[in-house]
Amino acid sequence: MMTTEEITEYLNREYGGNLDPTYAEAGDSWITVSPSVLREVAKTLRDDKNLQFNNLMCLSGIHYQKENELGVAYHLHSTIHDHKLVMKVRVPEDNPVVPSVESLWKTANWHEREAYDLVGITFRGHPGLLRILTPQDWEGHPLRKDYEQQESYRNVSTGI
Q: Which residues, 6+ apart, have CB-to-CB distance to 34 below 8 Å?
């Protein structure tokens, strides 16, 4: 089983030392990846015989309101080697586009739709990026910190 630091060192041999782990005081440490290399790094994490992250346990959309950014956290697990890794990507609020990993881990399909619906992140290359929890004509993204709830929807009060 490899630690986040060992996985980062291993990946840096492939990606030229551009990945740095962030050590959390509580919870899991993580690596931050640029959207431009996200799919390539994700494919390496899945396919490399020493890593084999064959399970995307969770994918969550995040709103970093103070920084005017949105992000995605990917919680990965190798059932073969028993490593775990958290990988994060951040994008500006005014261009929240991240490559889809749905073709690498099918479980990402619904997770990406949820992050799109509730936080507003667009996953480029997703096969059917539609809202999953709110109606298709819903205004806004309910998990953004600046979200203002609609007073009504189709002439029905939303409870404000």
A: 18, 89
For range 13-36, the mean pLDDT: 87
Kindly state the average pLDDT of the residues 67-94.
Answer: 97
pLDDT at 83: 94
Question: What would the mean pLDDT of 127-155 be, rounded to a whole number?
Answer: 89
In angstroms, the first-to-last Cα distance of the chain is 50
Strands 84-92 and 69-77: antiparallel
**Number of residues assigned to the chain:** 160
What the block records as the tokens of 60 is 């969550």
Q: Which residues contact 69 (CB under 8 A, 6 or more apart)?
A: 90, 91, 92, 93
